[in-house]
Design a protein that fits this description.
This protein is of the alpha/beta class. The chain folds into two domains: about 230 residues, 3-Layer(aba) Sandwich (Aspartate Aminotransferase, domain 2), CATH 3.40.640; about 90 residues, Aspartate Aminotransferase, domain 1 (Alpha-Beta Complex). It has 14 helices and 13 strands. The strands form three sheets. It has a seven-stranded mixed beta sheet with strand order 2-8-7-6-5-3-4, with helices on both faces. Strands 9-10-13-12 form a four-stranded antiparallel beta sheet. Bound molecules: ligand TLP. The site of ligand TLP has 15 residues, from helix 3.
């Protein structure tokens, strides 16, 4: 059978040979005793890359975000986020379940929220009968908006606003690497404007598992305690940390190939009169597009029949994500399949 081209997510990447070799050869110890040299090396490398005092290896992006929210808040506090954010939509209600938090979502444009929208939502400091606004969080790149990049000037303004109102500023930087490669702005520069940062090793970077959170030493010490309490203390986990370290050392720069592939596919989709795509939002490795004459389910089914896997982005949009297991030839073939499915004769 011919290989399926899988554009459902960049989480589907499989460890390469080089990564598997690094995993096989990893020196390990008990990380709960902080004695795993590979985990320690990964955390040091990541802290340096992100320009933060300390970093912690955690199981997943969700755990990373939730640990950060937990450490920066108390039950009953409120978190301002964007309405399409991962934290609001795809983390199983865990801000409420794990930390007793209430979310206050704001609708952004391409995932970007502006200071003027946030200010009215910040609760007055002396209102003891209201929740306390404690955290402002944004996502870069923004997944559900289609991999869009947060403009640095806006991040800087939001950071100042957060400081002015004594709010912590958290970055869901699951795909911060993509933003950095696309703009040329170092991840360190992005991270410097936030109190806490969570970023994934297991998406476009190709590691099988894991995320990193970073911040001050005190913040990470507390996150270390909470991670253990939540059952996230792992033992000889250097085997997985080795994959993460390999990912950070080898797979960041090549993300630009995924962005070129995404642009190519977006242009082919844009040229098809039966499909609609917001080309302005095609900035990194995620594409969202709308079939005008077929339902989402039928579209996905017809593509699958021809060897192309796609997923649902928002309710009325199809999502395609490029990644390191998808070659230029695969992308050309994916574009041909999409043309075939959405050509006049089939719709
Ligand atoms: N995103 C996944 C799905 O959950 C939607 C995907 O396929 O894109 N923050 C952002 C911005 C994310 O996109 C994701 C995963 C996470 C956090 C959570 O990461 P994991 O899956 O490692 O818990």
């Amino acid at each position: 059978m011919e290989k399926m081209i899988d554009l459902r997510s960049d989480t589907l990447t499989k460890p390469s040979e080089g990564m598997r070799k690094a995993m096989y050869e990893a020196e390990v110890g008990d990380d709960v005793f902080k004695e795993d040299p590979t985990v320690n090396a990964l955390e040091e490398f990541a802290a340096e890359l992100l320009g933060k005092e300390a970093a912690l290896f955690v199981t997943s992006g969700v755990m990373g975000n939730q640990l950060c929210l937990n450490v920066l808040s108390s039950p009953g506090d409120e978190v301002i986020c964007e309405k399409d954010s991962h934290i609001f939509n795809y983390e199983s209600g865990s801000p409420a379940a794990l930390s007793g938090l209430q979310l206050s979502p704001i609708e952004g444009v391409n995932g970007v929220i502006l200071p003027g929208q946030i200010e009215p939502l910040i609760r007055p400091a002396n209102a003891y009968y209201m929740p306390r606004t404690k955290i402002l969080t944004i996502e870069n790149t923004h997944n559900r908006a289609g991999g869009t990049i947060q403009p640095l000037e806006n991040i800087i303004t939001l950071s100042a606003l957060a400081k002015q109102h004594n709010l912590f500023f958290h970055l869901d930087g699951a795909r911060i690497w993509n933003a950095s490669v696309a703009t040329g702005i170092p991840v360190k520069e992005y991270a410097s404007h936030f109190d806490s940062v969570s970023c994934c090793l297991s998406k476009g970077l190709g590691a099988p598992v894991g995320s990193i959170i970073a911040g001050s030493k005190d913040f990470i010490n507390e996150a270390y305690r909470v991670r253990k309490a939540w059952g996230g203390g792992m033992r000889q986990v250097g085997i997985l940390a080795a994959a993460g370290l390999y990912a950070l050392q080898h797979n960041i720069h090549r993300l630009k190939e995924d962005h070129v592939n995404a642009k190519y596919l977006a242009e082919r989709i844009n040229a098809n009169p039966n499909l609609e795509i917001n080309m302005e939002a095609v900035q990194t490795n995620i594409l969202l597009f709308k079939p005008l004459k077929l339902s989402i389910e039928e579209s996905i089914r017809r593509c699958k029949e021809r060897g192309l896997l796609l997923s649902v982005g928002k309710i009325d949009l199809i999502r395609a994500v490029t990644h390191l297991d998808v070659s230029v030839e695969d992308i050309r073939k994916a574009a041909d399949i999409i043309d075939d499915v959405f050509n006049e004769q089939y719709v």
